[in-house]
Amino acid sequence: MQTSTSLAIDVHGLTKRYGGRNVVDAISLQVETGRIVGFLGPNGSGKTTTIRMICGLLTPDAGQGSCLGLDIMADAIAIKREVGYMTQKFGLYEDLSIRENLDFVARLFELPQRQQTVDEALQRLGLTARQEQLAGSLSGGWKQRLALAACLIHQPRLLLLDEPTAGVDPKARRDFWDQIHQLAQQGITVLVSTHYMDEAERCDSLVYIAYGKILAQGTAAAIVADAGARNLEDAFVKLVGQAEDNFA
Ligand SMILES: Nc1ncnc2c1ncn2[C@@H]1O[C@H](COP(=O)(O)OP(=O)(O)OP(=O)(O)O)[C@@H](O)[C@H]1O
């Protein structure tokens, strides 16, 4: 039996309603510390909304739970200090350099020894040589690397990555995933949403949602086997087809 202390995410019945519709509908999710969990589902299925409720950015209409042992309703501010949240749209200042962007984030978190912290962040992500380059002049892959450096600067224990590799070339995506695996080896938990099947295959386990509900979860191999499918993509097509009949 799993004890709650080994769960980085432990939420029950999370529900969010917009315009009279449950866009997230009673989702319960448990993620063990140090795991990489892929969060998949069609556009508009509720992934971003769920991620935002988990990290206290959005208040659920129903449900409860904890993130890193902190209550998602009562401890939202404390959660933000422990979580790195990377969105599809990189929230960086295009007219600031790489170094200035990281320094700005370090100030927001009121980190001590800012210069050293920024130096280390630059080094860890291979950004030192480009530190004076303006963020706006970077390619998608380098912007993504900077965004990851920014969301790691306060040494979070949990990374919530919302389609972090959208629009990034294959080499940069591969580098990014190598980085994610290194972080997980250091004990950081990762919940990552993606539409890419090759990325899903690199996760320890997967959660697949549609219409705001979890349709399948487990390892990629188990999901494929349970769906009687040839591969992950086929499994998801089957699952969403069945869900259309039930929920659409
Ligand atoms: N603030 C809001 N007001 C009204 N509707 C919203 C709001 N935020 C999200 N929605 C709706 O909720 C549904 C779920 O959106 P969400 O962004 O969580 O999906 P998603 O699975 O992350 O999609 P994608 O893969 O396209 O990023 C969508 O129909 C969206 O239009």
From TrEMBL:
Keyword Membrane: yes
Pfam families hit by this protein: ABC_tran
Domain ABC transporter positions: 9-236
Keywords of this entry: ATP-binding, Cell membrane, Membrane, Nucleotide-binding
Alphabetical list of InterPro entries matching this protein: AAA+_ATPase, ABC_transporter-like_ATP-bd, ABC_transporter-like_CS, P-loop_NTPase
Source taxon at top rank: Bacteria
Annotated GO MF terms: ATP binding; ATP hydrolysis activity
The protein, known as: ATP-binding cassette domain-containing protein
